[in-house]
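Hello,

Our lab assistant flagged a job as stuck in the queue for most of the afternoon. It eventually completed. Since we weren't sure the result was trustworthy after the delay, we are filing this so someone can double-check. Below is the sequence as submitted and the structure that was eventually returned. Let us know if re-running is recommended.
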Amino acid sequence: MKKFKRTLVTTALPYANGPVHIGHLAGVYVPADIYVRYLRLKGEDVLHIGGSDEHGVPITLKARKEGVSPQDVVDKYHTLIKESFEKFGISFDIYSRTSNPTHHKTAADFFKKLYEKGVFVEKESDQYYDEEVGQFLADRYITGTCPHCSNPSAYGDQCESCGTSLNATDLINPRSMISGSTPVLRKTKHWYLPLDRYQEFLEKWILEDHKEWKPNVYGQCKSWLDLGLQPRAVSRDLDWGVPVPVEGAEGKVLYVWFDAPIGYISATRELTPEWEKYWKDPETRLIHFIGKDNIVFHCIVFPTMLKAEGSFILPDNVPANEFLNLEGDKISTSRNWAVWLHEYLVDFEGKQDVLRYVLTANAPETKDNDFTWRDFQARNNNELVAILGNFVNRAVVLTHKYFDGKVPAKGKTEPFDTETLDAIPDIVERVSTHLEQFKFREALREAMNLSRLGNKYLADTEPWKLIKTDPERVKTILNVSLQITANLAVVMEPFLPFTAQKMRDMLNMSEPRWQDAGNTELLNASHNINEARLLFEKIEDAKIQEQLDRLAQTKVNNELETKDVEPSKEDITFEEFSKMDVRVGTILEAEKVPKTKKLLKLKIDTGIDHRTVVSGIAEYFEPEKVIGQQVCILVNLAPRKIRGIESQGMILMAEDADGRLEFVTPASKIKPGSKIS
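-- returned structure --
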């Protein structure tokens, strides 16, 4: 493998139209941060580049929905995302944004260079146009019926019901999301990146030169190449984004897929005047951390752009992850089916490393995986508390208890001591190998094996029993235990940075270096260590139930939103309506009708008289709680007997989509008998 002088790590730019959720973290940001922290521990020259993607239709849709400007939307969510990442410990060297002037200039200059080199194909095409608002419609501004699954709410680029990619012209009965009208096709001019001209180059570069890429990445690239690449538009008709910097392109911006990856370049440029050595020196290793939905852009499209420009290096690896599901269902921002990072940081204050641990241990590296709150709880209680936290706590507490917080000198070693110490560098080597291969789940498992090694060692040697009969032997046991703990404080830094810092504080250690890991003499004899601190605490069932209840309510809300409203009944005449006499009444008495589940017998003051009404509301209201309730009552409904009771009218109720009943009542208390008109 080639040795590089430096490494440039980029992470997919999250859309600034909403917060970051655990799917983003598991797919991109946690693995990237682990890798960057590992390289920094090794003393390597590495930059970690991130930022918000602030252009594109999702931003404009959000702005239109909230009644604000696109800039308002991106300002709000860029700040929220950036702060969430910082609190979670994602260690960017810069977290930038694509709406800033540096990015606009960098993206425009990139386009102009390709334009001047004659790279683009310019052509006219038919695109949907909304005549009512006078603008061309981006794919996401068009909905219609999916030709594959008949979903009536498919978008112009994809059906979220069956997952099929679409062209807007594929939709049956298309309509504009802006005006609701039926759009028409009009000619419009755009510039296209001719991916087909780079097919041969990409086949050799990916399929022959990068067979070491992850199977899911390599396989998806091969599928695209086998189908044959087609030109892809780099501009679109929109008023939010980087303006296309050529004559005759008024009202057009760079397509977001074209300008977003250039955001990596502009952010590096913003960070350092030496940005070119990270992007143009072949001694730099470029690595993109992304989710599987971005593979084609980072392995085929962006490399084609860089190759066409001519002066940039190409990515050496793109270790994309698959998707993380939530409680057996696909994470969806539109359905609010997610665990949002900013909410987690409030609900589980100080537990950043618990989530980092669970997302790494359950990482969707080769296939989609599922996050469940019960698994989150179990991994915290049974692994972090019972294994890692338990071992570190025992080693430090026993040292203070028996030797006043000073590292005891190692005396005569027995074969079990030597066997245990010899296992440390072997474990560290395996952690390192897995990290180099982007196998973060396996790397974490090996790192935890250090804790398991320590727990087994303490359990088998039982220093708490030996202290009375052989204190010299206990000195050796605790020295060995503390050397394991010190190694944990180094090895856990990439995975659990907050916890690793706590361990180093306890052990009174200096800043870690990866080359220290595996050393069995990290702590000298007589070195003072600080008092023990609990690294983790048990998470109780009630805390987990809160999260499950929140998701259950989300599911109910989603079902209610998608439930069809009952259509209206046949028209009636005004004369028919005017025959109804609806008054305000007050419930004076209420009791359940015997041998029924649904019926209440009510006595109501109608202002005209006091009358009895039988109403089917007993499943939703207790009799004693409705006394005094004002209602609307149809007083001239012909009496009818219900369960032997003459009912003299009908109270009006509203029924929600889930069948729940609510009283139709005046906003404030008014005199019984007041007419409803």
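-- support follow-up --
The delay was a queue issue, not a problem with the job. The result is valid. The two ends are 83 Å apart (CA to CA). The first strand starts at residue 6 and ends at 11.
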